[in-house]
Amino acid sequence: MFAFDANLHTLIATALQALTGTGITTVENGCPTNVVKSVGSQFFSVLGDACFQFVTNDDVPFETAQKTCRQHNGTLAMPKTKYINDFLLQEMQRRQQLKPMWIGMQDTIREGIYVWEDGSQVRHWGNMHYFNGEPFSSGEDCLALNPLDWQWHDFDCSNEKHSFICQYDVQS
């Protein structure tokens, strides 16, 4: 298994963009301009076709986090691959965010069946805390990334408050 390497990612992205003749996507030209201007570019990162906003100064219930992301045509982050998941965790650590952050995954409709914000079913790769010996709890239906153990943890959606990560499509 390979760990995410930000320098290697940048090198590969730059080489691919040079080969294809496209410009390099940055926070300034790829993320929602109005949001970047209002909070500052230091809270954003771009990976591929996604722009991620790290809202680290506002601990809120899950639904409030969802609404905040949707106000700017985004969703809570959906790290559907280990590569994206590792990128988000490294960005959390780079920002010294050592507490869990809400991501766009929940099992509120059917206990134990996790879905992403876009309605697709979650596939895991051993990163859910449940699969490491501690079962998820009934009534704790919303998930957050924990940068201390690099696992997904479930929490009570209404009573727990966490910072969160929004995901936006890169602007063309």
TrEMBL record:
SUPFAM superfamilies: C-type lectin-like. SMART domains: CLECT. InterPro entries: C-type_lectin-like, C-type_lectin-like/link_sf, C-type_lectin_CS, Ca-Dep_Lectins_ImmuneDev, CTDL_fold. Residues 47-161 form the C-type lectin domain. Keywords: Disulfide bond, Signal. CDD domains: CLECT. It holds the Pfam family Lectin_C. Residues 1-23 form the signal peptide. Gene3D superfamilies: Mannose-Binding Protein A, subunit A (3.10.100.10). This is C-type lectin domain family 11 member A. It comes from Elysia marginata.
